[in-house]
Amino acid sequence: MGSVKLTKNDLKKQKDQLKQFERYLPTLQLKKQQLQTVIMKAADELQRKERELLSLIDGMENWVAVFAENGTFAEENRLEALVLPDKVVCVRENIAGVSVPVFKELTFREIVYDIEAYPLWVDEALVRLREISRCDALVKTLRRQTELLGRELRLTSQRVNLFEKVKIPEAKENIRRIEIYLGDQQTSAVVRGKIAKKKRQGAAV
Question: CB under 8 Å, gap of 24 or more: what pairs does 179-187 form?
Fold first, then answer.
């Protein structure tokens, strides 16, 4: 508890601060609830997309035999040279007061290749590999979202606790102490006044 002057000015200051804390606390509590709700939804979406990514990767097991042919291609003609992610396209959105990236698209470098130089399965394999890359980029973006939202939730929870458990109780205790002190001072002044009056009356007799 900080140093408090037992004066009317400090009493007013403490009461003003208490009003401010009590006005601001519901806003923080609402933000905390919103963040908790948004994080739950984001976590569910992340889990769903992670499962989708694993499913896409598992689906490539059927391609193991044909992928073995990939090793027979010249290094510059292998599939990994034909699927080159360029950039992840995201926009920034405000979610529960937090600016987070929202995945839009994963672009790929334009690679021109001779269709006749590859077996028929390559075209389908490239589509699947791009799909896996896009899903992976989306998963990474969702992880970043949940990370940013989680960080904001921790900060907001700390502020809620600070107001609930420290600032508001501290202001109330300061007000109580100042009011008791000022009340005692007022009582003492009244008593002193009565004593002084009696003395004056006694002196006048």
Answer: 179/11, 181/6, 182/6, 182/8, 182/11
As a CATH number, domain 8-188 is 1.10.287.3240
Which residues contact residue 139 at a Cβ distance below 8 angstroms, ignoring those fewer than 6 apart? 46, 49, 50, 53
| pLDDT tens-digit map of 74-131 | 666 677 778 889 999 999 999 888 999 999 999 998 888 777 777 777 788 888 889 9
14 burial (CB, 10 Å; 0-12 / 13-18 / 19+) is: buried
The pTM assigned to this predicted structure is 0.77
CB distance 96 to 28 below 8 Å? no
Helix H or strand E segment including 37: helix 8-59
